[in-house]
Amino acid sequence: MPHGHGEHPLTRTATPHALPQPAQAQETRSWSLTLARVWEELMAWFKTLLSAAVYATIIVTFGFQVARVEGQSMVPTLEDQDRLIVNKLAYRLGAPRVGDVVMLYYPEDPDKSFVKRVVAEEGDTIRSADGKVYRNEVPLRDDFIPEEYQSHDTWGPYVVPRGYYFVMGDHRNNSSDSRAWGNVPKKYIIGRVQLRWWPLDHARIF
User: Is 73 one of the annotated active-site residues of the chain?
Assistant: First the structure.
């Protein structure tokens, strides 16, 4: 019996020290898993940002530029905040053509850039009668422009000088363009709008 009494205190003393060990190990493993998940998330974001930087470098290096539309002057063709890819090589290899949607430096402040449509090139005669625009006395196609975006102004005729272009916004009654600030020199035309890539559900190649 004395031997039996000596065993019970040892059993009761060992139990409290043995129980916390598995819980502590489980907590350590949980913390390690959390850190691992956080690290994986950070690495995923880093890879995404790195990829974006590489793509941007390739785009700029090979003659393309990412641009964003600001304003309503090209509605309905382009909407405010649309994202575009501009082909800067297009006019190094050729000349702008009537109908092209282009990105250009604002002639009165070349630090700003606009997106407009070329409606006349050098040597053309351009005029408007009650909003109907004529190039060399041939009416421009404007059936894609809703009535509410049409203008009813009369101006011209103007002859476009050599090396210049006459540009307008598709939102005829809400666009600052060549009607206000004149012809645009070719050197101010950055490139042709090649692609609208955002929003994705309205992506379009021009």
Answer: yes
Q: Both 110 and 196 in a single domain?
A: yes
pLDDT in tens, 51-67: 666 566 656 666 889 99
Q: Which of 88, 116, 175, 178 is catalytic?
A: 116
Overall number of domains in the chain:
2
pTM as predicted: 0.71
Which residue in the block uniquely carries the two structure tokens 């082909």? 87
* Catalytic residue (choose from 32, 47, 51, 73): 73
Q: How far, in Å, CA of 82 to CA of 200, rounded?
A: 10
| Domain region containing 122 | 65-205
Percent of the chain with pLDDT over 90: 67
